[in-house]
Description:
By secondary structure, this protein is mainly beta. Helix content is about 5%, strand content about 45%.
Amino acid sequence: xxxxxxxxxxxxxxxxxxxxxxxxxxxxxxxxxxxxxxxxxxxxxxxxxxxxxxxxxxxxxxxxxxxxxxxxxxxxxxxxxxxxxxxxxxxxxxxxxxxxxxxxxxxxxxxxxxxxxxxxxxxxxxxxxxxxxxxxxxxxxxxxxxxxxxxxxxxxxxxxxxxxxxxxxxxxxxxxxxxxxxxxxxxxxxx
Length: 191
C-alpha cells in the first residue's frame, strides 16, 4: 500500500508495522501507535531538496534514516507532543509515555522544543516531559526520574563534541575527541 502526505498509520493492541520509504528509510511502529506523514518529497539520490516530516501522535517507533537524512538533515523531523526529533544519520527509537523517551543506537539526534535543542548521541537515552521542559539524559534503569542536568557514574563523550563548563569566575571548553579542559568546576573532556 502507498502512503501520502496527511496519511496516518495506526496499530492495534497486538499490531506492528514496518514502513519503507522511497529514500530507503524504515519506520517500525510498535503496538498502540499512531504515526502521520506530514510532508514527504524525494526525487532521487541527488535530491538536495528532499524532505520528510512526520508526527508520532502516540505509542512508539524505531527508525533507520535513509537518504533524506544524509542529503538534507534539516529536511527531516519527527514532531511529538514533547519535542521535535531531528537527525544526523541515525538509527533511534522513540516512545511517547508521559513524555518522550528516546534511545540512539547509531548516529545522533537532536530534541528541540521551547527550551532549546538537546543532542543525544550514540548509546545515550534521554527523556523530555513536554514542550516547556528541558530534555535530560537517562541512566541505565531510569525511566524519567533523573533531575535535569544530573549525571552520575562514568560519562563517555564520543565524536565531535563540545562541552562548556563554568563557575562564577572561570569557564572551560573541551571540543572534539581527546581534548581536555580543567577549571575550578572540574575536568571535562572526551575520549
